[in-house]
Amino acid sequence: MTLKYASKQKIFAYVLLSLIYACGNVAIAYVTKIMLNLAQYKQGDIRDLIKVAIDCRYGCYYSDFIFQHSI
Q1: Helices 8-40, 46-70: inter-axial angle, 10-degree rounding
Q2: CB atoms < 10 A from the CB of 17, how many?
Q3: Percent of the chain scored above 90 by pLDDT?
Q4: Which of 10, 32, 50, 69 has the fewest CB atoms within 10 Å distance of its CB?
Q5: 69, 35, 30: which is closest to 53 by C-alpha?
Q6: How many CA atoms lie within 13 A of 46 on its CB side?
Q7: Does position 38 have pLDDT exceeding 70, yes or no?
């Protein structure tokens, strides 16, 4: 019922941002795979693992911030 009164632009923006937000789960799974490969196959040292964790944390934080404050 609410969709009947909402503007098409807001619905489109909401759907687009929801899809981008959902892609965050895929990104987290991919980063987890990278971290597991670094730990399992000893392709780097602990600093590489920490760099990946920090980069992922800030990327997820900023994407969540943008999603929450854009609507």
Answers
A1: 170
A2: 16
A3: 0
A4: 69
A5: 35
A6: 0
A7: yes
- Taking the C-alpha atoms of residue 20 and residue 39, their distance in angstroms, rounded to an integer, is 29
> Rounded distance, CA 27 to CA 21, Å?
10
The pLDDT, as a whole number, for residue 66 is 63
pTM above 0.90, yes or no: no
Q: Is the pLDDT of residue 2 over 80?
A: no
Distance, CA of 29 to chain centre: 10
Q: Tokens 């780097």 belong to which residue? A: 44
CB distance 68 to 24 below 8 Å: no
